[in-house]
Amino acid sequence: MDIRFYKYQGTGNDFIMVDGREFSLGDDPISQIKHLCHRKFGIGADGLILLQEKAGYDFEMCYYNADGSQSMCGNGARCAVAFASFLGIITDKTHFLAIDGPHQATISGEWVELEMGDVQKIQPLGEEFFVDTGSPHHIVFVEELQQHDVLGIGKKIRHDVQRYPQGTNVNFVQALAKNHIQVRTFERGVEDETLSCGTGVTACALVYGTQQQQNTIKITTLGGNLEVRFAEDNKGGFKNIILAGPAKQVFSGNISLTAKVKDLENLEKR
């Protein structure tokens, strides 16, 4: 069966978008998702998003990482808002559902501001930190970020089963100014460094903003610039968290869904 797809990117974090009101990924969605997201055998993406109808909401965002696992994705959610606007489901505001609960967002041109879920706390880990922003994030502050071994060290922490039995995303942060950081992220589910990670930069901004007593943090990623705004609650947590940045449609096309993706299956057996 042929499906219509759209490719979106938010600061280099790229996603396959499918209008789930019209198409289904069939009886074996995980194999299809892994195939479609593969950069050699499929379209290529960090993840795939299905927009589906949901009573009481404008839409539901069903997000899958490139390996078929599910989690909250901040940049993916911003791209989903842009896709919903393109489809005419929403205009300039939206109320939608994601895996971690309801979200509000606004869109103006290619600029999307997403209200993230509340965060209960920052967990110190010696000189490092852990924050759950809908997805788990380990945070390490470093100097000379451009020369840092993000892939090697990130993979080691991501697979530290003693601390993270379910795995974690790993973020490396360099301070640039009192209200400005640079972030590189090793993403669980993609199993590689991505050009940007929305839930990751949000986690890093909460930690750095708390340290510097700033509630608006600019973030530079390999794929572009984002901004995070937030307020502290009276319980040591955070509320009114906004992740803001661009979300752009790159191209669209049609692709055939195959019941058997032999090339990818054979590669995974090697």
User: Which structural class do the helices and strands define?
Assistant: alpha+beta
Percent of sequence in beta strands: 35-45%
Arithmetic mean pLDDT = 95
List unreliable stretches of 5+ residues: none
Which of globular, elongated, flat, extended, rod-shaped describes the shape?
Answer: globular
How would you briefly describe this protein structure?
The chain has 270 residues and is an alpha+beta fold. It is 20% helix and 42% strand.
Detailed description of the structure:
By secondary structure, the protein is of the alpha+beta class. 20% of the residues lie in helices and 42% in strands. It has five helices and 17 strands. The protein has helices at 29-37, 74-87, 150-158, 198-212, 262-269; strands at residues 2-10, 13-19, 47-52, 60-65, 93-98, 101-108, 111-115, 123-125, 128-132, 136-141, 169-177, 180-187, 192-194, 216-221, 224-232, 238-246, 248-256. The strands form two sheets. Strands 5, 6, 7, 8, 9, 10, 11, 12, 13, 14, 15 and 16 form a twelve-stranded mixed sheet that branches. Strand 3 and strand 4 form a beta hairpin. The longest helix is centred in the C-terminal third of the chain and has 15 residues, at 198-212. The mean pLDDT is 95.
Task: Offer a few descriptive terms.
12-stranded mixed sheet; alpha+beta; 270 residues; 5-stranded mixed sheet
Write the layout of secondary structure elements.
Elements: E1 2-10, E2 13-19, H1 29-37, E3 47-52, E4 60-65, H2 74-87, E5 93-98, E6 101-108, E7 111-115, E8 123-125, E9 128-132, E10 136-141, H3 150-158, E11 169-177, E12 180-187, E13 192-194, H4 198-212, E14 216-221, E15 224-232, E16 238-246, E17 248-256, H5 262-269
Parallel strand pairs: 2-3, 10-11, 12-14
Antiparallel strand pairs: 1-2, 1-17, 3-4, 5-6, 6-7, 7-16, 8-9, 9-10, 11-12, 12-13, 14-15, 15-16
